[in-house]
Amino acid sequence: MAETIYDKGDLARLSVTFKVNGIATDPTAVTATVRAPDGTLTNYAYNPGAIDRDGVGLYHFDITADQSGEWAYKFVGTGTAADVGPGIFYVKPDPTEEAPHLYFSVDSLKETLNLQGQTNIDQRIARALEAASRAIDLSCGQRFYTDTTTRYFTPSSWCTRSLEIGPVVSVSAVTVDTGGDGSYGTAWTEGTDFYLDPVNNPAEGLPYTTLTLRQVSGRTFPNYQRSVKVAGTFGWTTPPMGVIQFTEILAAKLLRRPTDAPFGFVLSGNDLGTITRLARTDPDFELLLGDYVKIRQLVA
């Protein structure tokens, strides 16, 4: 069965037919799980819940396809009809939106491979670029796009004057748990209590990496777990050229792999681990990405 393709923002209808010995049958209970392209899992249920019954053994629910990439879902019936109904669908990238999480564009890779005008392979190219970009993140232990969020940090000791929080573009708030009770009641001000360092990094197109206490502030880091809460924009405003170049190289390799694999290229959690190992063993990895590998790796 061909994979269903939606535009970003479409309402995707997911459906299933439960059968026992080839006859449509209602399960005792019906649930479903959906995995979005970013890995987020969402659970659904019938009676009560978001899943609708259309007839004997027939169920569906609708979700908004708000992320580009490949989605996966699975219906599970239990009791009178113990059955599983898995499926996948693909959401095309919105051409009017930026895609900072991809380090190379579909059109540019098509030009590299002399595939201009062949719109039927855009889906495969987007998958390969997504896989290559995420493999680079995992291999380097950092992300090369921006993400505005809140993160928590544990200082190595109370006497240290600096705390690695990067890469970070800017900080909007720093609050501290001074008593180890999980309440962040003390706010620190940039320029008064701390600096972001190295100070000249933005002039070189690089993010900050460190929060450094001002010596005249009299501040110290609390020696508690997750005692420093930082809200800001983390990552890189623009990926380094080595990241862009290696994404092109790795994605081109991934596009050629289906010719050697009978089931083609399908990105999943296990595949991403394989692709990450492939990236690290590439002879160009150290040349282009060696300077960006952090000792503390991202969680896969």
Please summarize what this structure is.
This protein is of the alpha+beta class.
Structural write-up:
With 300 residues, this protein is α+β, with helices and mostly antiparallel strands. The chain folds into three domains: 89 residues, Immunoglobulin-like; 89 residues; 88 residues, no CATH class. Helices cover 20% and strands 33% of the residues. The strands form four sheets. Strands 11, 12, 13, 14, 15 and 16 form a six-stranded antiparallel beta sheet that branches. It has a five-stranded mixed beta sheet with strand order 1-10-9-5-6. Strands 2-8-7 form a three-stranded antiparallel beta sheet, with no helix packed on it. Helix 2 crosses helix 3 and helix 2 crosses helix 4. The chain starts with a strand and ends in an 11-residue tail after the last helix. The C terminus is likely disordered.
SSE map:
Elements: E1 4-7, E2 11-17, E3 19-20, E4 23-24, E5 29-35, E6 41-45, E7 52-55, E8 58-64, E9 69-78, E10 83-92, H1 106-112, H2 122-140, E11 147-153, E12 162-176, E13 186-188, E14 194-197, E15 208-213, E16 228-234, H3 241-256, H4 269-281, H5 285-289
Parallel strand pairs: 1-10
Antiparallel strand pairs: 2-8, 3-4, 5-6, 5-9, 7-8, 9-10, 11-16, 12-13, 12-15, 12-16, 14-15
Helix pairs in contact: 2-3, 2-4
The biggest beta sheet reads: 6 strands, antiparallel
CATH superfamily of the largest domain: Immunoglobulins
**CATH classification, class level of the largest domain:** Mainly Beta
Separation of termini? 31 Å
How many strands appear in the DSSP assignment?
16
Rg for CA atoms? 24 Å
Q: Provide the residue-averaged pLDDT.
A: 87
User: What's the CATH topology name of the largest domain?
Assistant: Immunoglobulin-like
| Total separate domains | 3
Proper CATH architecture of the largest domain: Sandwich
Structural class: alpha+beta
Shape: flat
Report low-confidence residues grouped into runs of 5 or more: 261-270, 296-300
Strand content: 25-35%
Helix count?
Answer: 5
Bin the helical content: 10-25%
- Which H/E pattern describes the elements? EEEEEEEEEEHHEEEEEEHHH
